[in-house]
Structure formats: structure tokens, C-alpha cells
Design goal:
There is one protein chain. The protein is mostly beta strands and 617 residues long. Helix content is 0%, strand content 52%. The strands form 14 sheets. Strands 1-2-52-51-50-49 form a six-stranded mixed beta sheet, with no helix packed on it. A five-stranded mixed beta sheet has the order 3-56-55-54-53, with no helix packed on it. Strand 57 and strand 58 form a beta hairpin.
Length: 617
């Protein structure tokens, strides 16, 4: 530890501990576990059976379905995962365009070595020793020749001996590969390139009777054959078609394909499911013989992949965490986690965890499942606090929104705040002494509101700078923090002494924006700000605790005198023991917005993508 006598700054090193899981795997007492995964789009789905299904997507998300419920699994990466395929439930592959390649052995996912795997985002194989990776369907530029895994290493597919009249695959990216066996594999190129592998050679091929103008994608298995979606020119117009290969030849499925296809899965020619776009919306159609059924619309979100164990067990995934399941009769939304970022967290005395954010309403976790309450609230909520002795809960958010729970139900409270105002944090010494702070961003002003148990009062809505955090020891000792009033001005710290608010003035307060404040009874006050600064007040004066890392904290919570937790950007969690900081990698994909702990030290963190983390001592 280095102490500067001139500045009063204590410079502390912030060492690292091993990364916590990003799934609900068993964890030691020093690891963070995920109660709710960070969810974005889901890009691919595959299963070994109806009771063993994997879905992968944004932020390194891997979800597993056991026939009853979906649970997150630890992927070990925050990079997007675009494809999943397996030879069995104990030998599953996943990869993404960033070059990450993962393999699951039935117990855990582990990274695989692959030097040139960047840009690939589709998988197919005939066995665990015969797997292909192909190019992108989505947002990254497709890779060139597909990769092949022989059971020991990944290597580019050797296409050097192909007929020289065939267009060079090196200049025509490969969007799909599929087959029915190791010696019966097809590759589709983005410019209508179509080649076949017979176990010895790759040769160009064509489908008699079909002058395909564009090949969109494929899916295949030994049991079901290969399904191909493509485009033909008919009467001067493009028409979508679906074709099936049974090992001997190709045959059209249905009469014309009434949608723009994105992904397909089929059990046989009588049971083909295709997800795509129809009349400007995402749909799923099923073909039973020669006719396509009426489209089923999932509600606007784009679909990216579809897979089934049988015609009565089909799963589709897509944009914004879309997770749909078909039971042979109807499609239902199977995603148990509401979408959106989370900004606030608090736990009641009976163990119910409440989270707020851009998900709409208030999320409640009862220890086994998540429910959405106060669904009438569509505003983004930024802060939540409750009186654990009375079960009353308050939440605040954009456009001056205040939501109140009386122990039975939620209601919206009109506190008189302007719609130009965002209320960003809330704290109280009890249900009859509650403070809320926020910002009028249009006029760059701060606002302070107070609730005395009967009504809300705007104490001030003309403060010179926006306020972002509030916390106190008691009803006569409360702190609020926020932005600086100017570039060279110190960060704003205000104090309430039971009678009035005043600006805290100290030469030790740096010229930074403050985001949060917290403390513990009879102890110090901690304030965090941009650039990794942590300011501490010991009852006599202010001093700065330098973390020693590049880290912008967004929230801080004092669990006890020797346990202070700060969270922020890049999924970083830093813990202060009273003498030094330790960095804890959470496995979170982005910013962590809020942290809260109960009296036993059980700590909760929420953030980007709706992630909820828990740490138990």
C-alpha cells in the first residue's frame, strides 16, 4: 500500500480472482452464480432428444432444456455463439463468428483450440469425428471454405481437386453445409455454388428440373435426409421452393414455398417446418404432404433457427430471446425470463427478490421462478427500495414514474414530477421517510423528492446538476451524489442533516461525475464515479481509494465494514476488504448496473441483458 502525504490518496492494487460461472452450475462460496441469464437474440437450437435441447445466442448464452424447464449453462465466454450441433447429448459443439469454439461432454462446456475459426457460424456433422463449420447467416461476413473436424483438430476443407470449371469457393462464401452421412455431404455457396462429397471427392452437382437462382440454406440428418431451401425463376418472378434429398434423389416438398425462408427442420416429407418472413412478419409454416398450413406468427420478432425431436416437439429461436415450443397442437412462448436490461435490485424479508429495468413492470423471483408484477408499468424503472419491516416497496424511473407496493398490490403514484424528469435512485430510513433523486436532462438540473408516509413532496427541482444516487444512515444523515456542475468542478456530493440539504465542500473531491453512494451503520461512506474512482468519508474527511484498474463503477454497496462491493462496465465486480480491492470476474457480458446485499451478506447484482447474479458467503 502506498500512501501519499500530499494528496491523502490511498493507492490500492486490485488483484484478480478466477471468473465466476455464467450458468447455474454448482459453485463454491466465492463464486457468482446466475439466477437469470443475460439474454439477447438466440441464434441456433439443437437437441439429442425432446428432453435434451440446447439453444445458443448473444452474450455467450447457452440454455438447456430438460423437457420441463430451461436453465442457463456456463459457456465461459461472453462472445456471441451462433451455432450448436451435437453427435450426442454428451458430445455437443458450439461456435461463433469471433472464433470461439466450445465442446460439451455432458457435464461442462470447454473451449476447443481452433486457430482459423473466426467468421464461422453454422455446424453440421455425421459424428463426433466428422463435423463441418460453415459461414455466417447473420451479421458477420461469411468465411470462405468450410472447416472440418476429424476428432482431433479443425482444418480447412481441401477443395483443391474440384473441377476447375466450378466457381472458386474461396471467393464465394459458404453459407451452409449438411448431409446424411460422412460420404454424402452437400455444400451450398452464397452465389448458387452447389457441391457434393462422396467420401473421396468433392464434385459440382445440380438438381434435375430445377434451375435454382439462389440457394438459401440446408438442414440434414441420417434419419431425415437433407432439406434445401432455394429460389427459382418462374414466369419472370422469383419463387421460393423447398426440396428434400433421401439419399437417392431430390424431390420438391409442397407446392411452392409461401414465405421467404430463414431456417428449416424436417422429420420427413410429411413433416417439414420452415421459419421465415411472410408479408413483412415472421412466421412458421408446416408442410403436411403437398400443402402448407396457415402461417403462425410469433409476434414480430425475427426467427433464426428451428429444430425438433418429433412433429409434436419443435422449438424455434430468434430475435430478442424468442424461444417458442410446439406440442403438435399449438405454439407457445417458452422463454421464462422477461427481456430487457435491469437497473435496480432489492430483496424483501421473506426472501423474494425484486428487480426493475427496461423489462416492463417489476420482476419478482421467489426462489424457484420469475414472475412479472405491475405489468401496467411500461416505463423503464431505475431504482427500487423497500421497508423490510412493513413489506412496502417503492420503485422510481423515467418521466417521473413512482411505483408503490403496499404489501398486496402495485400502484402508480403521482408525485408531481415533470415528464422531463428521470428519477434514478431511491432510499429510505423507513416507509415514512423515503428519498428519491433524479435528473431533468433537458435542462441539466437535479431533483430531490421526499415521502413522509402520506404524500410526496418535491424538495427541489432546480439543483444545478443531475443527481444519480442517494443513501443514508438515518432520517437526519442522508447523502446524494451526482454529476459535476462543470468540466473542472468537483463531483456533486450533497448532505441532509435532518433540516436541510447542503453541498459538501472538500479539496479532496475530484472533478468527476459520481454515480452511487453507500455506507454501513457506524462506519464510512463510499462514493463511486467515472474512471474507477472511489471516494471514502471516515467521519472526519474525504480521501480517494484508487482501485488500480481501468474500471468505471456504476454502483456500490457496503455489506459490512470489511465487505464493500462495486460493480460497473465490462461485467467487472470489485470487492474491498477494508485493506485492499479484489477484482471478481462475473462472466457477465456488459455493464453491471446495481448491487444490493441482505444482512447475511448474500449479494445480488443486476445488469445488461437482464442478468441477475448472486453471491453467498
Amino acid at each position: 500500500m502506498l500512501v501519499s502525504a500530499l494528496t491523502g490518496i490511498v493507492i490500492l492494487s486490485c488483484s484478480s480472482t478466477p471468473s465466476g460461472p455464467n450458468g447455474n452450475d454448482s459453485a463454491s462460496d466465492d463464486e457468482w452464480t446466475i439466477l437469470k441469464p443475460a439474454l439477447g437474440s438466440l441464434y441456433s437450437v439443437w437437441g439429442s432428444s425432446a428432453q435434451d435441447v440446447f439453444a445458443v445466442g448473444k452474450y455467450g448464452t447457452i440454455l438447456h432444456y430438460d423437457g420441463l424447464s430451461w436453465t442457463p449453462q456456463k459457456s465461459g465466454t461472453t462472445s456471441d455463439i451462433y451455432a450448436v450441433w451435437g453427435a450426442s447429448g454428451e458430445n455437443v459443439f458450439a461456435l461463433g463468428p469471433s472464433g470461439v469454439v466450445l465442446r460439451y461432454d455432458g457435464e461442462a462446456w470447454r473451449a476447443e483450440s481452433c486457430v482459423d475459426c473466426g467468421g464461422y457460424s453454422q455446424l453440421w456433422g455425421s459424428s463426433g469425428t466428422d463435423v463441418y463449420a460453415a459461414g455466417s447467416r447473420f451479421f458477420y461476413p461469411p468465411s470462405l471454405n468450410p472447416l472440418h473436424f476429424d476428432g482431433s483438430a479443425w482444418a480447412p476443407t481441401d477443395l483443391s481437386h474440384i473441377d476447375p470449371n466450378l466457381p472458386d469457393l474461396g471467393s464465394n462464401p459458404v453459407p451452409a453445409v449438411a448431409g446424411i452421412a460422412a460420404d454424402d455431404v452437400f455444400i451450398v455457396g452464397s452465389d448458387n455454388t452447389f457441391v457434393h462429397y462422396d467420401g473421396e471427392n468433392w464434385t459440382p452437382c445440380a438438381i434435375p428440373g430445377y434451375d435454382l437462382a439462389l440457394l438459401n440454406g440446408m438442414w440434414g440428418s441420417a434419419e431425415s435426409g437433407v432439406f434445401l431451401q432455394g429460389t427459382i425463376m418462374e414466369g419472370g418472378f422469383l419463387e421460393f421452393v423447398a426440396l428434400h434429398y433421401d439419399g437417392t434423389g431430390w424431390e420438391e416438398v409442397g407446392e411452392g414455398l409461401p414465405l421467404h425462408p430463414v431456417a428449416l427442420w424436417g422429420l420427413d416429407r410429411e413433416n417439414l417446418f420452415i421459419a421465415g418472413d411472410y408479408e413483412g412478419t415472421s412466421v412458421i409454416r408446416q408442410c403436411g404432404g403437398q400443402e402448407w398450413n396457415l402461417p403462425w406468427r410469433p409476434g414480430g420478432s425475427s426467427l433464426y433457427d428451428i429444430w425438433g425431436a418429433s412433429s409434436n416437439s419443435v422449438i424455434a429461436v430468434g430475435q430478442m430471446g424468442t424461444l417458442l415450443r410446439y406440442d403438435g397442437t399449438e405454439w407457445t412462448d417458452d422463454n421464462p425470463w422477461p427481456m430487457g436490461d435491469l437497473f435496480g435490485v432489492w430483496q424483501s424479508a421473506d426472501g423474494n427478490l425484486f428487480c426493475v429495468g427496461s423489462t416492463g413492470g417489476v420482476l419478482r423471483y421467489d426462489g424457484s421462478s420469475w414472475q412479472v408484477e405491475a405489468e401496467q408499468i411500461d416505463a423503464t424503472l431505475y431504482g427500487i427500495w423497500g421497508d423490510r419491516s412493513t413489506s412496502e416497496i417503492f420503485a422510481v424511473g423515467e418521466e417521473g414514474t413512482i411505483v408503490y407496493h403496499d404489501g398486496i398490490s402495485w400502484s402508480v403514484v403521482d408525485a408531481g414530477a415533470s415528464e422531463d424528469t428521470d428519477l434514478l435512485d431511491i432510499w429510505g430510513s423507513g416507509s415514512q421517510d423515503v428519498w428519491a433523486v433524479g435528473a431533468d436532462w433537458l435542462h441539466h438540473k437535479g431533483i430531490v423528492l421526499h415521502f413522509d408516509g402520506s404524500e410526496w413532496e418535491i424538495v427541489s427541482d432546480d439543483l444545478p446538476t443531475p443527481l444519480k444516487g442517494v443513501w443514508g444512515y438515518s432520517d437526519s444523515d442522508v447523502y446524494a451524489v451526482g454529476r459535476r456542475a462543470g468540466v473542472s468542478a468537483p463531483g456533486t456530493i450533497m448532505h441532509f442533516d435532518g433540516l436541510a440539504w447542503s453541498l459538501v465542500v472538500s479539496s479532496e473531491i475530484p472533478a468527476i461525475d459520481f454515480a452511487s453512494v453507500s455506507g454501513y451503520p457506524g462506519g464510512d461512506v463510499f462514493v463511486v464515479g467515472s474512471g474507477g474512482e472511489v471516494l471514502r468519508y471516515d467521519g472526519i474527511g474525504w480521501s480517494e481509494l484508487e482501485m488500480g484498474i481501468t474500471f468505471s463503477p456504476l454502483d456500490i454497496y457496503c455489506v459490512s465494514s470489511n465487505d464493500v462491493v462495486a460493480v460497473g462496465y465490462y461485467g467487472v465486480i470489485c470487492r474491498y476488504s477494508g485493506t485492499s480491492w479484489t477484482r471478481e470476474e462475473s462472466g457477465a457480458p456488459g455493464e453491471l448496473n446495481a448491487v444490493w446485499a441482505n444482512e447475511s451478506g448474500e449479494t445480488y447484482v443486476v445488469g445488461k441483458g437482464g442478468i441477475v447474479l448472486r453471491h453467498t458467503r
